[in-house]
DNA sequence: GTTATAGATCGATGTCCGTCGATCTCCAGC
DNA sequence: GCTGGAGATCGACGGACATCGATCTATAAC
């Protein structure tokens, strides 16, 4: 695309001044950015991403014993990843006898998903 | 929700057999999971997430000198984060004279965004 | 009580990541 | 040529992370 560079700094300017005015700024507040970044970080591991993928495909709960053989890591590693997802607020678990069942928390990805899908701001005249 | 647990392991089973059949599996292939996880990892830092947010709000290119004062880190750190985003395939840059301009690569978030927005699979009878 | 099993937790280890200051490269102006 | 600035790169440092084996807890069956 060959859009004009409204955001170009001035090529000529007095020495000592910043190269340009701060005309851009993040729309997302710092707290919101940290919240969404923590969600993204939780999804930033292939095993955790696939765990979420499996759990989302099942409205019911999934037994941990089903999840472990899906990956080439030890049980303690899967348990660790599930804990990370739980602490990120993406999943929760329930115990029934010997077994533990995990499920995704509805709308836990809502804010982050809306931001990712947001794309370019059509109201921005740039 | 109180959906039945079709995925429960058998409570009675012969010793030595696995607790349950592998009836669940990730829909996303490993390569796709690693691809999307690398995108998520790139977004897993508040500064990088806000960088993407700023760049997406502007269809044109944004001068690096505008991005640096937005954050409380040094220039080299911002440059490092921009490099991470570039290597993740989310942004690209163009040099004009002394200044460098960054812009988001269109549809770079498409696959990941579609997965995040996908939610529960309605075709799954669980 | 004893034994066996599911799963969480702990401790150690090696690797990766975020940040910094310093340096390097490239370009513009003189 | 020389000088100065924008931004990329490098090396170092500290903290975080992924993985493992071992252990612990809780339940179920005997």
Q: What would the principal axes of the Cα set say about the shape of chain A?
A: elongated
CATH superfamily of one domain in chain A: Winged helix-like DNA-binding domain superfamily/Winged helix DNA-binding domain
Oligomeric grouping of the chains:
homodimer
- Please tally the helical runs of chain A, counting DSSP H or I stretches of 4 or more residues: 5
Query: Span between N and C termini of chain A?
Result: 12 Å
CATH class type of one domain in chain A: Mainly Alpha
Major sheet characteristics of chain A: 3 strands, antiparallel
Q: Low-confidence parts of chain A lasting 5 or more residues at pLDDT below 50?
A: 1-22
What percent of the residues of chain A sit in helical stretches (DSSP H or I)?
25-40%
Mean residue pLDDT of chain A: 80
Order of helices and strands of chain A: HHEHHEEH
CATH architecture of one domain in chain A: Orthogonal Bundle
Instruction: Give the chain pair forming the largest contact, with residue counts.
Output: A-B, 67 and 67 residues
Rg of chain A over CA atoms, rounded to whole Å, is: 22 Å
Structural classification of chain A:
alpha+beta
What is the percentage of strand-forming residues of chain A?
A: 5-15%
- The total beta strand count of chain A reads 3
CATH topology of one domain in chain A: Arc Repressor Mutant, subunit A
